[in-house]
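ok so I'm stuck.
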Amino acid sequence: MPYLSPFKLQQASHQLERGGLIAYPTEAVYGLGCDPVNEDAVMRLLSLKQRPIEKGLILIAANFEQLSSFLDYDEKILAKVETSSSEVITWVIPAQSWVPKWLTGKHASLAIRVTAHPLSKALCEQFDCPIVSTSANPHHRQPARNALQVRSYFPKASKLTILNGKTGGNKNPSKIYDAVTGRCFR
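replied:
not stuck anymore, here's the structure
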């Protein structure tokens, strides 16, 4: 199991609170993250990754309750998410009208995942809020699978905090499903 000392976990949470960017292990690859409601932080993350805002972003959380205020869902959607908790699935769910376009992109929905990765989950618990989760790589490059690859992709990103840990061992990033239609995007 990936381990991060309580002190390092608290430092990472403070970095998020101050609008900082972090890189952290997830179920398959390293993710880049920030506070999802901090526009400046999200814009710096998109710039660092060279990711178009129109694509939207994924939020990860320790539990569904951390995500619920971002989503416009019913019991049927909730049941789908809850019954899939043993799998690594990112769900695309209609977003509340207040959710900013820097998260949804050109869509009216938001991609979310309740993470099972111990370090990512602990980070979301410490921050007490979902965090942005996009693969740690420049746009159109392979995702980083360890802290050294993250540093090699972003050597000039002096304000990027990299949490050292192991990914969950999955070979591929999560599957992405539309929670309303059941359509598989990836």
